[in-house]
Design goal:
- The chain is α+β, with helices and mostly antiparallel strands and 273 residues long.
- The protein has six helices and seven strands.
- The chain is 58% helix and 16% strand.
Length: 273
Amino acid sequence: MLPIASLVLLNGFLLSEQSSFGYLLICVGGVLLIISIVIGFSTVEKLLKAEGAARDAELLALKTKLERSHYQRIEEINQDYAEYLHEMNRIIRIMEQLACTDDNVVIKGTVEKVSQMGRSTLKQCYINDQITNAIFIEREKNAMDKDLNYQVDIQSGIDVSFIDDLDKISMFGNLLDNALEAAERCKEGYVFASLYKGNEALVILRIENNFKIKPHKIGEKYFTTKSKKRKHGFGIKKVEELSEKYGGILKCYEEGDIFLAVLMLSNIPNLDN
């Protein structure tokens, strides 16, 4: 409709000096132009809504997957403890028999085996928040598959309930994924993450990792180093946008071959959002 409106207006301007019909064409062209603009904005709005709905659906599916991963993890822990207790009962009976023989060497060896079995049985539950715990557990599995040194330190009793579940997935997940991808290129790659309170209103996520390929930086902004740049590089930008929603900020630093990302979020409502 826009090209038609433009042609009608153009003919109207050309004919307006020759006859009154030209003014009529200008009026018709103007109406068509307004209608085309309204249709254009309406189409853009629908596209944006469709894109937002698709993005929310994708994040919701990821949230469901993470929740399933969390419950599966709890079930695995319960199963491991059940097996551990069963083995403990059996070993205790054996140790009682060994105690009667006064064979301290065998008893000591058995105790060491029990201790090792206990350490291998214990599995980490990082935080009570299901989504956050699932995010760290999911990346722990990725780190193990990539043979990376993955350590997580979360302050006891920390509250992240003020952060929307989908935002946790976007912010925490993106930063951890970036760190894992960078560290896996290193010979002895590592990712150290810590989540703690800066004060009563501030929650801080700190992620440190080493890297082999230097991050692409223009000014203070970091961009993807991947070849298909159109499909990547939105992670840090998205985290920065979401951090503003919580009155926070994302800071990234380089120190030699070490990359450090510090995400600060406030539980005080941001009135601008």
